[in-house]
Amino acid sequence: MVSGMTAERWVFGYGSLMWRPGFDWVERRPAILQGRRRAFCIYSVHHRGTPDRPGLVLGLARGGSVRGIAYRVDPALWPEVRAYLREREQPTETYVEAEVTVRLDTGARTACLTFLSDTLHPQWAGSLSPEAQARLIAGARGLSGRNIDYLGDLVSHLREAGIRDRGMERLLARVTELEPEDASGRADPAQRC
């Protein structure tokens, strides 16, 4: 957990928090977290899937490094921001709230609040093959919409941020091939539920 001893409060985002933080921030900086990587490693039974037809969402799996965004938050707003993030990131408690150290694009290192994948949670998908990931994502839909849209948003926003993630781009191409379509070329809603 982020300690109460520092005046500066930072949040690290590696997925949708990068382009849709949903909270007020004072500063936004590109950042790198070492020892973790962006991965579709969590079954989604809430936002991007259902218990009967799970999808996949991002988590931070061990190994590698991940480029993301660090947000500095006004300390006066910290309790509100932290409560918001807990509600947003923990609907099924598949993540562990943690303090990590990231390197900002300025070269400075800072502690950030982030949410790591809980490898002991029943929704932990682990290291699925790219094909297994594609088959789970294709056709999955939850309260926040289609799983393919989540993946497409990720790839698009990573590109806008100057981050080329070829693995995610290949995954999106494969999911697009697998996504159920009706005769009009649109995804068939009956197949997505």
Topology:
Elements lengths: L8 E5 L13 E18 L10 E19 L4 H12 L5 E10 L4 E9 L12 H8 L3 E2 L2 E2 H14 L5 H13 L10 H4 L1
Describe it for me?
By secondary structure, this protein is of the alpha+beta class. It has a domain at 9-127: Hypothetical upf0131 protein ytfp, CATH 3.10.490. 26% of the residues lie in helices and 34% in strands. It contains five helices and seven strands. The protein has helices at 78-89, 130-137, 147-160, 166-178, 189-192, and strands spanning 9-13, 27-44, 55-73, 95-104, 109-117, 141-142, 145-146. The protein has a five-stranded antiparallel β-sheet, with helices on both faces. A hairpin with a 2-residue loop joins β6 and β7. α2 packs across α4 (166-178) and α3 packs antiparallel against α4 (166-178). The longest helix has 14 residues, at 147-160. The radius of gyration is 17 Å and the shape is globular.
Offer a concise description of the structure:
The chain is α+β, with helices and mostly antiparallel strands and 193 residues long. The protein is 26% helix and 34% strand.
Name the strands of the widest sheet in spatial order.
Answer: 1-3-2-4-5
Low-confidence runs of at least 5 consecutive residues: 1-5, 182-193
CATH topology of the domain at 9-127: Hypothetical upf0131 protein ytfp
What is the helix tally? 5
